[in-house]
Amino acid sequence: LRFDEKVRVVVFKSEVKGVFCAGADLKEREKMDDAEVGLFVKRLRNLMDEIAALPVPTIAAIDGYALGGGLELALACDLRVAASSAKIGLIETTRGLLPGAGGTQRLPRCIGVALAKELIFTGRQIDGQQAFSMGLVNHAVPQNDEGDAAYQRALTLAKEILPQAPIAVKMGKLAINRGIEVDIASGMAIEGMCYAQNIPTRDRQEGMAAFREKRQPQFIGK
Predict the structure, then answer these.
(1) Which GO terms describe its cellular component (predicted)?
(2) Residue 112 bears catalytic tag
């Protein structure tokens, strides 16, 4: 996906009704020794980092349970849509664990330190509507009979992104992701570098021409 220039947006969904991702298989984990657990979690953390580093926008469609590593997967995405009835939480402390695939870092960056601490310390599960009120998900939608309401809303959101200039969207994602980790002056420099990469693109010229000619632009990702 990273190297496929035809990909504009990636939507993560589950094929299992009622479950987005329930996290690690604890029965499997119980059979591992300490070294194996450490390697397992390191590989999981690397996977989440790879997802977070995808150059195009990513959307998690949470139509059911997103617990532990399942929520960490959703947090590695840029945007999240949840069914109101979804159950969401970093429940690791209820099993003698702590989040190890990015949860302690991405959750506070998403909803703030105090709320993240509360959810992680308590291992509490919240529904999609509560997640929306915290800013953990972008949208919460009533579940439908098919059980894919979040996925349908995620597709609608993806279709809003699709017509926009692909390189500009990618550079916008990069500028936000890198800029949020530094002071604002450094962030402005990052934005400037990302903007400079977009200036010579054919899509920028197309955008200007379409505005002048009062028509919809036809972006090609070049």
Answers:
(1) mitochondrion
(2) no
